[in-house]
Amino acid sequence: MILSGAHETVIGGSTPATRNVISANGFIGVDLDRTNDSVIKGNYVGTDKSGTKDLGNVNSGIRIDAVFGLAAGTTVGGDTAASRNVISGNGSDGITLDSTQGTRVVGNRIGTTASGTEDLGNDDGVFISAPQGRPLYCARAHKDVLGRMRGFLPEY
User: Fold this and answer.
1) How far lies 104's CA from each of 1, 21, 73, 91, 120, in Å?
2) What is the pLDDT of residue 70?
3) How far apart are CA 81 and CA 119, in angstroms?
4) Measured between alpha carbons, how far is 66 from 99 in angstroms, rounded to an integer?
5) What is the per-residue pLDDT across 42-87, written as a single tens digit (0 to 9) for each?
6) Residue 90: closest CA among 43, 142, 36, 130
7) Range of the domain at 136
8) 95 closest CA partner among 58, 72, 61, 143
């Protein structure tokens, strides 16, 4: 968990050497709470190191939360294949966005293997609760590959 005050945090990177495997945790894989301008890229969240086996986190793969403050400007994934996260096999949402502003979710494999050809699922793909102020940006479907799941669930 990264708590408030940790701004411009980078989790992962654009090369296999900087990739994190964030799996089999008893709660949430990556939990950003009241952070700004962070980047989560190039990681395997809920899978093994090959991105083909389900080792899901018990709850969400990634949660960005600002219920008691502000979380703005976070990017999950990126515009290149090297920045892509694989977020699959998690017991709850692949990504939970709660009261965030200006969050970008782009270029990821959500609910699939790293190749995007097989389902590994999440309960929900991306769950959005109470977005504030600036709009949330989710890439067009051809950039984020979504596997078996209930999909985007905005809640206002």
Assistant:
1) 20, 21, 7, 23, 23
2) 74
3) 19
4) 5
5) 999 999 999 999 999 999 999 998 766 678 889 999 999 999 999 9
6) 43
7) 10-155
8) 61
Longest dimension (CA), the chain: 39
Q: What pTM, to 2 d.p., does this model score?
A: 0.87
Q: Which class for 65: exposed (0-12), middle (13-18), buried (19 or more C-beta within 10 A)?
A: buried
In a domain, 121, yes or no: yes
* 42 located within any domain: yes
Per-residue pLDDT for 18 more than 60? yes
Distance of CA 12 to the CA centre of its chain: 12
Question: Contact 108/100 with Cβ under 8 angstroms?
Answer: no
Supply 17's token pair. 């050497």
Instruction: With respect to residue 140, please indicate whether it lies within any of the assigned structural domains.
Output: yes
Q: What is the dihedral of CA 62, 63, 64, 67, to 10 degrees?
A: 180
In the prediction, which pLDDT does 142 show?
39
**Hey, how many other C-beta atoms are within 10 angstroms of the C-beta on 67?**
12
**Rounded CA separation 67/49 (Å):** 32
**For residue 132, pLDDT beyond 50:** yes
Residue of higher predicted confidence among 136 and 88 = 88
